[in-house]
Specification:
Layout: H1 18-40, H2 46-67, H3 78-83, E1 104-108, E2 118-123, H4 128-136, E3 141-144, E4 147-153
Helix pairs in contact: 2-4
Length: 155
């Protein structure tokens, strides 16, 4: 008993069928599209918004840790958080380190008013579309002129 039957090919032609070629083209096209999406993603701003959101969460958490046992957030800034090892050294002074090349700022609202227990975290140099997307991720954030400001009340 033969398991495979030899193709009836009168001209003894060799090669791929149209169906085999179509499958190969479809697979290559799918892989190409997938790769292109991964290549373009960092340029469409969504990745930068995600990075900035994680950085802000890090700054808020470190600031809250820093304020324990102190009277509010008076005197806080990115440099102090970095120097005390509360945040990664890549933040340094907060200058030119966000995904768009702008700054991160951390301050007490007392420096711009009277509230010692309100933390202000800023992200500057943000393009308009990304500014809106970043601010929309948090009810505590506002976007204005390329700066997203988070206002965090101490508990």
């Amino acid at each position: 008993m033969k398991l495979f039957k030899k193709r009836n090919n009168p001209n003894n032609q060799k090669g791929f069928t149209l169906m085999e070629l179509a499958v190969v083209v479809a697979v290559i096209g799918g892989l190409g599209t997938w790769a292109l999406v991964d290549i373009i993603a960092p340029f469409n701003g969504k990745e930068n918004v995600s990075i900035a959101g994680r950085d802000v969460a890090t700054l808020v958490s470190a600031s809250q840790d820093w304020s324990e046992g102190k009277v509010g957030y008076t005197g806080i800034n990115v440099t102090k958080l970095t120097d005390e090892g509360r945040i990664d050294t890549r933040f340094s002074t907060g200058t030119s380190v966000n995904p768009w090349g702008g700054d991160y700022t951390v301050a007490s609202k007392a420096s711009s008013g009277l509230d010692l227990y309100t933390l202000l975290v800023g992200v500057t140099g943000v393009p308009t579309d990304s500014c809106t997307r970043l601010a929309d991720k948090s009810p505590q954030a506002k976007c204005s002129s390329g700066t997203v400001t988070y206002t965090i009340q101490a508990i």
